[in-house]
């Protein structure tokens, strides 16, 4: 993706690094195949918690503003919208219990269907970066984008008290998220080492 540049990555990475050493250690103790799905959802839940933390939201907001708003019809309006809404939308998505299961069930990961050994016995820096990169791919994918857009336009966000007007909210989600989610997902891949340090105490 050509519109990702170093400064946007830096914004996200700095946001991530701000929380280094506050991450929870994620320990693995030789689980059987049957537990692969649970391993994956537990791990992704930890990542999701981080992605909706104050420091991460600040980095994500900058990333989306720099990477997306200049290409839209109303860049200033876009920036205001992202400032006002990204954090709320990210919290709705990553704060939902089902999000981790959906991510782990995606074809990119396959853990909850194909029981790929996401963590078992292989957990370490490389495996961590691989999983985080795959989560980024799921978020950036066409299916991931569509699922997220539909989720946000529904009861969980646009039709909830978080949004003043469901129609306007849905238009905003349609205008922003199909462009923002691929950039966001890709940036998670690029920041995978910092995320593994921060969230899982790996790659130290
Ligand atoms: C939402 O905003 C639209 C467009 O401004 C307006 O037509 C509609 O009446 C609003 N709906 C509510 C419930 O306020």
UniProtKB/TrEMBL annotation:
Keywords: Disulfide bond, Signal. This is Saposin B-type domain-containing protein. The keyword Signal applies. Residues 121-204 form the Saposin B-type domain. Residues 1-25 form the signal peptide. It comes from Tigriopus californicus (Marine copepod). SUPFAM superfamilies: Saposin (SSF47862).
